[in-house]
Design goal:
- The chain is an alpha/beta fold.
- It contains 22 helices and 28 strands.
- It has a seven-stranded mixed sheet, with helices on both faces.
- α14 crosses α20.
Length: 693
């Protein structure tokens, strides 16, 4: 450690720390614009000036390394005068449009001007103006407000991996622009809005809708993928206006995917706000009592083995628990949380988790991707992979892939093959990357749903498991065999045992007419023609998506922003979200709907409160009893029981294909969002052209 004296207070910091980091360790707040703790140091703005004893002039603390015994002064007249001069310089060309700027109330320049501004300007010449840039449907630009801090340039280059912004010209003529006139193509572009310290980059869909101080802010969990990104829901007057990320270094750091941020307008469109009952082939609006009585009558005389339930991708753990209990009361073991028909090793929790945890990527030194496209399936996780690639240096973090991945993952990837045969070659030592994995101290394998939704999914998993054991990806203290889920509800469903019982039917069999009554809990992402024509369908969900059109009874549920709920991310981390607004109309929380119906059908569930549901969830699986933010303590995997020759013969020959065709259209909320529809229109042709090359 290095001892530094900050304003007379000694503080110990790691070697290589900057003066700014030393000052913050001592509890001193240093103003800054260009510095960001997750980006490289630029030293552009000079707002972070401090005085170092025996230095001839103030220094930019963000890029000034500390040394043992250094004395730093943060609040002298020299420092204050220097900061006031910098602030005056930054405000020379800045427009006086704070009353109409969407950044108002969240603007770093506003805050620092309050502390270091003079109130008047000595600048008498004409102010310059900069042409606004069209960055696509998500990010709005007012480039005259830009102070050239270059945070956006560094973010797109370093974090997003899409270097589409740059600084051109010099001096007064310098401006941030795109190299060519085109929209930003990153799935993380919305984070530019958060890191911009002024109002140069703001959210285009929510422009001029509300002020920052008008929002009611609620902590929640993003459900657009399985990463469990920590978010804050900002609402006004019963309407969700914005969704922004919260900092959680173990999960998402401080980033959020564009789909999680901008699909918010889909929450108020195509909503189901009252029960519906189909009479003589047509759906009619009904009361809750009428819908429940109609469903109860339809269930009369139907044996339990002819009733089934399929859960969708956005469900909370509470609704899964309640529906499972109801099905058990009705005598049915036909339940499934896998509407895509995926296969998992459910003999232990480690068989279906991202065992190393998301933060484990920071420790990995080699990576193999099997049947996954993390850029679309989990953009924030993909950024973490890129971060590790940059941190280790070129070539020090080798990444290979098995499967057809038609997009640039933002880091170099060696494609070993498009089918499972490449996995067999690795096991046999026929490919050089096998030695790369063996020589790595902490190799990692990520298995995606491009592999797990195939007929040979079990064989692929067992082969990957055998490879992990062979190359040392599973050792004492390290489990690098990871499953990357795409559905926010999937791990909770597996933890709760929302799977077919000993004689129960899986989702594919239920859809083929294996049941008379089929309960769809937010299950929308499958072809409707798979449902048998004589199957009576109950759809419980929050959007009038495809499945609602096929339903005989519709029960309106609450979206994730409208209920308190528990979600388990792909790494097995239990997290809890809270209600930001109330559901529209007659819609209710899903577990309460199921509980109320259980009374009508004569099989009352043994809980009436959410705390009671939590207790029931904990009795099914202890992971739900550890509180939210539970630790992921996956056990070490055992050696596979199946011999190599057996699974080798079962491996298919067809290529592994990505499971997400359109990143912006993957669930009922995103499909209802005009913003996501516009993104799909803008970006899909671009990606199709890239894939064809």
């Amino acid at each position: 450690m290095v001892r530094v004296i900050v304003d007379g207070t000694p503080v110990d910091v790691p070697p290589g720390s900057s003066a700014l980091q030393a000052c913050e360790a001592a509890g001193k707040e240093i103003p800054r614009f260009c510095y960001h703790e997750r980006l490289s140091v630029a030293g552009n703005c000079r707002m972070c000036l401090v005085q170092v004893v025996r230095a001839p002039k103030p220094v930019a603390s963000c890029g000034f390394p500390v040394s043992d015994g250094m004395e730093i002064l943060t609040d002298t007249e020299v420092v204050r005068r220097a900061r006031r001069a910098v602030m005056e310089f930054l405000l020379i060309n800045h427009p006086l449009d704070c009353p109409i700027c969407d950044q108002g109330g969240e603007c770093d320049l506003q805050d620092q001007a309050y502390g270091y501004g003079t109130g008047i300007s000595r600048y008498q010449e004409a102010k310059r103006a900069v042409t606004d840039k069209d960055l696509g449907p998500l990010v709005k630009t007012v480039m005259t407000r830009c102070i050239q801090c270059t945070r956006c340039v560094r973010f797109t280059t370093e974090v997003a991996g899409t270097p589409e912004l740059g600084l051109v010209s010099r001096g007064e003529n310098a401006e941030i622009t795109t190299y060519v006139e085109k929209a930003l193509t990153s799935e993380l572009s919305g984070n530019l809005i958060d890191i911009c310290p002024v109002g140069a980059l703001t959210a285009k869909p929510s422009a001029f809708h509300a002020r920052a101080w008008e929002y009611k802010k609620t902590d929640a969990i993003d459900v657009m993928d399985a990463l469990g990104t920590n978010i804050q829901i900002q609402a006004r007057g019963g309407e969700v206006m914005r969704i922004v990320p919260r900092v959680n270094d173990e999960v998402n750091e401080e980033w959020l995917s564009d789909k999680g941020r901008f699909s918010v307008d889909g929450l108020k469109r195509r909503r189901l706000d009252s029960p519906w009952v189909r009479v003589h082939g047509k759906l009619h609006k009904a009361s809750w009592q009428e819908a429940f009585v109609s469903l109860a009558r339809r269930l009369e005389g139907v044996p339990g083995e002819r009733i089934g339930a399929i859960a969708g991708d956005l469900c909370d753990a509470e609704s899964l628990c309640a529906l499972k209990d109801l099905m058990a009361e009705l005598g049915s073991s036909n339940i499934d949380c896998r509407q895509d028909g995926a296969w998992y090793d459910t003999t232990s929790r480690a068989g279906y988790l991202f065992n190393s945890d998301i933060a484990g990527l920071d420790d990995a030194d080699a990576l193999l991707l099997i049947g996954t496209n993390p850029r679309h399936e989990a953009p924030v996780l993909n950024a973490r992979i890129r971060k590790q690639y940059l941190h280790n240096g070129r070539g020090a973090f080798p990444v290979a892939s098995i499967g057809n991945t038609p997009v640039d993952l933002t880091y170099p990837v060696e494609v070993l093959g498009d089918g499972p045969a490449a996995l067999a070659d690795l096991l046999a030592g026929k490919h050089a990357f096998a030695e790369v994995l063996k020589n790595a101290k902490r190799p990692m394998i990520i298995l995606g749903h491009g592999a797990l939704t195939r007929p040979d999914a079990q064989a692929i998993y067992e082969a990957a498991k055998a490879l992990a054991l062979q190359v040392g990806a599973i050792t004492q203290g390290w489990n690098g065999l990871n499953v990357l889920h795409t559905a926010a509800s999937r791990v909770a469903g597996l933890d709760l045992g929302f799977l077919p019982g000993p004689r129960g039917l899986a989702s594919t069999n239920m859809l083929r007419g294996g049941v008379e009554v089929l309960w769809l809990l937010g299950a929308d992402d499958f072809a409707l023609d798979k449902i048998g024509p004589d199957t009576f369908v109950v759809y419980q969900g929050h959007h009038g998506d495809a499945a609602a059109k096929r339903a005989d009874i519709i029960l309106p549920g609450a979206a994730y922003t409208e209920k308190a709920g528990t979600y388990v991310n792909t790494a097995g981390r239990v997290q809890r979200a809270f209600r930001a607004v109330f559901p529209p109309g007659e819609a209710r929380e899903d577990w309460r709907i199921i509980r109320a119906f259980s009374d009508v059908v004569g099989h009352a569930l043994p809980y009436n409160t959410q705390e009671g549901v939590w207790a029931r969830m904990a009795s099914i699986n202890p992971v739900f009893g550890t509180g939210y933010e539970g630790e992921n303590t996956s056990p070490q995997l055992a050696a596979p029981e199946t011999a190599q020759g057996e699974w080798g013969n079962k491996l298919g020959s067809t290529p592994l294909k990505p499971v997400i065709a359109d990143y912006y259209q993957t669930n009922p909320i995103s499909r209802a969002s005009p913003t996501m529809a516009e993104c799909s229109r803008v970006y899909s042709p671009v990606r199709a052209a890239v894939a064809a090359e």
